[in-house]
Amino acid sequence: MIENNAPVDISSLNEKIERESAFVDILTSEINKVIVGQKEMVERLLIGLLGQGHILLEGVPGLAKTLAINTLSQAVHGSFSRIQFTPDLLPADVVGTMIYNMKVNDFSIKKGPIFANFVLADEINRAPAKVQSALLEAMQEKQVTIGDETFILDRPFLVMATQNPVEQEGTYPLPEAQVDRFMLKTVIKYPEMAHEQLIIRANLKGGFEKVNQVVTLEQIARAQAAVREVYMDEKIEKYILDIVFATRFPEKYNLAELKPLINFGASPRGSINLAIAAKCYAFIKRRGYVIPEDVRAIVYDVLRHRIGITYEAEAENVTSEDIIQKIINEVEVP
């Protein structure tokens, strides 16, 4: 466990984080030129980017999921690629393949769309398991093997996968073990009426303002390193562990009624990602230390896809969000 730092260290750390996170406001305002009202989605994208994780976005079509990551890649000096997942897609369509070159009488490597800083995997559940596995391996290992050559992917590397919760015909749901590799699963809701009015106006005008490149990849790399330095007290670590362990052993936290509703609890990857995401959230709020509110702000996105619910829970219309809500209400806040 981390020992408490002296207050002097915290204040100097605060100053450092304030300096390193100065670009967050500039980047957010640049993205907001195009993305209207989806504050939570933009925040989660930044958390994924700073925490070196990946994001699964779930929402009905037309909620600017594709537009958001495209805009982020324009505002950051990074490359962007989009893969439209379909049932006939092959792993080679994602990672690349070897092509026979008649001129040189040899094989040459053609890299796939995975070789970019920002990769949008649109409707990830529409492609078969082989393709999903190829993408998820690249996400986990941050490298790709084509033939007998291994290529390290460029940093930063952020995959944003989308899935439509409404239409399930002809889809291949992601297995739990693969879903667990996403740092966050964010559910996108409809915009508010005032925001949608602005969206209509902007589209009728003929489009949005031009997005400028306001952040370099070096700044992002520095920020990713600075995020790890954000101070997390032992009490906050214990709070995170209590939340995660309550998903596994609810009866130990006066939540025996949840036992028949939970099929399996969050994995250790859940604890790690909750800690990293809380640090990223504190960084975005330009703070050098984590407070319980940071954990609570991000806990649904980190754990909603890591808790398996039983048939009994489904029969009672209990979701993983309902379970997290009960846990958060019961676990003691430091």
Automatic annotation (TrEMBL):
Pfam families in UniProt: AAA_3 (PF07726), AAA_lid_2 (PF17863)
Domain named ATPase AAA-3: residues: 54-184
Stored InterPro entries: ATPase_AAA-3 (IPR011703), CbbQ/NirQ/NorQ/GpvN (IPR050764), ChlI/MoxR_AAA_lid (IPR041628), P-loop_NTPase (IPR027417)
Top-level lineage group: Bacteria
All copies of domain ChlI/MoxR AAA lid, residue ranges: 260-327
Cited Gene3D superfamilies: Magnesium chelatase subunit I, C-Terminal domain (1.10.8.80), P-loop containing nucleotide triphosphate hydrolases (3.40.50.300)
The entry's keywords: ATP-binding, Nucleotide-binding
Family: Belongs to the MoxR family.
Name this polypeptide is given: MoxR-like ATPase
PANTHER family from the UniProt entry: MAGNESIUM-CHELATASE SUBUNIT CHLD (PTHR42759:SF1), MOXR FAMILY PROTEIN (PTHR42759)
